[in-house]
Fold these 2 entries.
Entry 1:
Amino acid sequence: MNDAISRTEKYQKTRRAFVKTCLATATMVAANPTRLALAEPVRRYSRALLKDEKGNPLSSKFMVENEAFVFHYPYVTTPCFLLNLGYALEPGQVLETSADGMYTWQGGAGPAKSIVAFSAICAHKLSYPTRTLSFLNYRPEKIRFVGSDELEEERSQLIYCCSERSAYDPARGAEVIGGPANQPLAAVELEYDMEKDQYYALGTRGGELYDLFFEKFGFRLALDHKIDDVKARVEGQTTVYPHSTYSKHSVSC
Ligand code: FES
């Protein structure tokens, strides 16, 4: 457990997150009842078992609190973050994409409802973690950033992009809380098998940017992954890496 985040702080975060979710949902539904009715359900892809680098199914104890992990889903070249925020994250957060309207977030998975996953492709200009470098990182420590209201803030447990400083809150479905990104990171739907203590990726919710991603980085993705078809789908299983070893350098700003 990370000592930097105390039990009291976790309780307060859980409670605050729950109340904020209820209030934000009520406000958004009141303002946009027809758009919510059109909200997309989860987009289903292959049901993929999350495995560690040795090929064993990933169990909850592998997911150390406040450490970021990377896996690829729903395509073999599209990276995602897997995070254990350390406290329960309720479902129902209503979010909005730039083009497709509103959707609801699944909340946390796992025994403590604290495990979340998001596309690790920045919604601004598609910065993503590579094997050599990552400008998009999970930041468990307190960092200063300029919020969406143009005021400087200090927060911990953010996904932060050092390309142009977009900030996302993983406890609220990766909604944008600062910087130029115009929509949340797409959420990856997780299924938790309680009996076996195993995790599956099932699909996505929110604004996918995969077509733009392939268009912009297809050539490089083919080289980096040593494959011809960068749009090949993940089938059956996907490997999870600690981000600290997946990317040689993580840029902090
Ligand atoms: S690419 Fe992430 S903020 Fe610009």
Entry 2:
Amino acid sequence: MTLTITLDLEDSTGANAATGRWVAATERFLAALTERSIRATVFVVGDAARGCPALVRRVADAGHEIGLHGLHHVALGVSGPERLGDELREGRALLQDLTGQSVDGFRAPIFSLTPSTAWAVDQLTDVGFTYSSSVLPARNPLHGWPGLPRAPFLWSTGLVELPCPVLDLGPARVPFLGGIYLRYVPRLAARHELTGLGPEALAWSYVHPYDLDPGAPIRRFPHANWPTSLLLHTRRRATMRCLDRALAAAGGAGLPLGERVAALGDAPLPRVDAARTASGDGAWARR
Ligand SMILES: [Zn+2]
């Protein structure tokens, strides 16, 4: 078991200015990764890349994998089936031109690949992505797709999906290795879950620049109400410590996600038909 570190590179203020706090927070995180000899996967929002192209080049030059986190930081349903394909193409080309890397991975903003946006799977595949980490296989106030496999699976188009790792905590199922949950899920529960993940699991954590910016002024987040926004401001000083603990519990840092997907090779993965599963016939478990 290893834990791959991922960063969703976005400016939560939406300004995407090259002088913004999100740039400084990302630079600090990059330095922390270098210190630990960790290569991560960094999912970049197209608007952020346009706002600070030099930062994206520095991320790539440091050896990290670049993936796309949407041309704009909006849920897939907001882009809609008419616009998403063009946005994906534009965002992928933008990042490839900036970095010289093939951009093979996609993460939907706010895990917004859900039954109501199942049409996006075809578009992601058509644009040329080989893997996605866009699904939260749980009920969630924002977005989620309960009932999907918790380990890597194949959409019927051939696109690999790496679901967000979740932990059963009482009646809730929470994405314990990322964002705010990373700072709040009890340490022992997280360690127990990590060490108990089966050999088919592929664990990854996710953070955002704001998770690493304790000094940022308090403000309301675009996708959250005030109580949640306040929670998102707390315990940020603990983020790196919690990440280090999770890495220790997992037995070390994993390779970037694209390399882990390549290593899956021809391993038999469950196949899921997005449209049929979204319509509720639940027939995903076909190999
Ligand atoms: Zn995001």
